[in-house]
Amino acid sequence: MNYSYRLIEIAKSVKKGSSLVDVGCDHGYIAKMLLDSNTIDKVIESDISEKSLEKAHMLLSGEKYKTKVKFIVSDGLANIDTSEYDTLLIAGMGEETIISILNTSIEKVRFFSNIILQAMGEGSNIRKYFKENGFFIEKERLFIEKDKYYRLYEISNKETNIIDYKFPVNFDVNDVHFLKVYYDNEVKNIKNILKNINKEKNLIKYNELNEELNKILQYMEKIDEKR
């Protein structure tokens, strides 16, 4: 089976010997990849949609998966007993949806040793949530597949290391190129807006954009230091 680059990168974040809860598992491709490579010992495949979960059930219906996989229809972690699992995976959802899932079952989330989140979005909202709720970013990834940006977070329940939630924390040095491309585009967009804005009529907005631009340029200097 051929897996997408995004799914392969997500799977790489799961530690060998893990027991996994995969929320929003959809087709079950990540679980299959991890089970076939003997990376995980067992997994709960969960989705709010019974139809989506049926797809995962079909994919993982073989005898070799029988004792290693449980299938549970659940809205987030609501219907799941997580006590025997150490790793949480939520992938392919928007930032606000992931934040809602974490917030609704925060006590369960606190007991996971490893939390892997692949969120769709610009990054600020979910980092702000991590900061306000005491999560530590162990590693943050940014990569591109088919002209789309994907953000991947490995977080843990430690005192937060986030100072400015606008920017990635502990980013992977292998992603420096993608970060440069992303922020180069941000700089171009802001400069274009500043060029066309009426400064006298929109002085507050003009100053805010200038401040944002300077912060991005300072962050890009830090990125260059990692190269």
How would you describe this protein?
It is a single chain. By secondary structure, the chain is an alpha/beta fold. It folds into two domains: 5-170, Rossmann fold, CATH 3.40.50.150; 176-225. Helices cover 41% and strands 23% of the residues. It contains eight helices and seven strands; from the N terminus they run αβαβαββααβαββαα. The chain has helices spanning 5-12, 29-36, 50-59, 95-104, 106-109, 124-132, 176-196, 203-226, and strands spanning 18-23, 40-47, 69-73, 87-94, 114-120, 136-145, 148-156. The longest helix has 24 residues, at 203-226. It is elongated, with a radius of gyration of 20 Å.
What best-fitting shape do the alpha-carbon axes yield?
elongated
The main sheet comes to: 7 strands, mixed
Number of domains: 2
Strand order in space, largest sheet: 3-2-1-4-5-7-6
* Element order: H for helix, E for strand: HEHEHEEHHEHEEHH
Query: Might you state the CATH topology name of the largest domain?
Result: Rossmann fold
Which architecture of the largest domain per CATH? 3-Layer(aba) Sandwich
Q: What is the distance, rounded to the nearest whole angstrom, between the alpha carbons of the first and last residues?
A: 35 Å
> Number of DSSP strands?
7
How would you name the CATH homologous superfamily of the largest domain? Vaccinia Virus protein VP39
Amount of helix: 40-55%
Mean pLDDT rating: 94
Tally of helical segments = 8
Strand content: 15-25%
What structural class do helix, strand and pairing data support?
alpha/beta
Radius of gyration: 20 Å
- Low-pLDDT regions: none
What's the level 1 CATH class of the largest domain? Answer: Alpha Beta
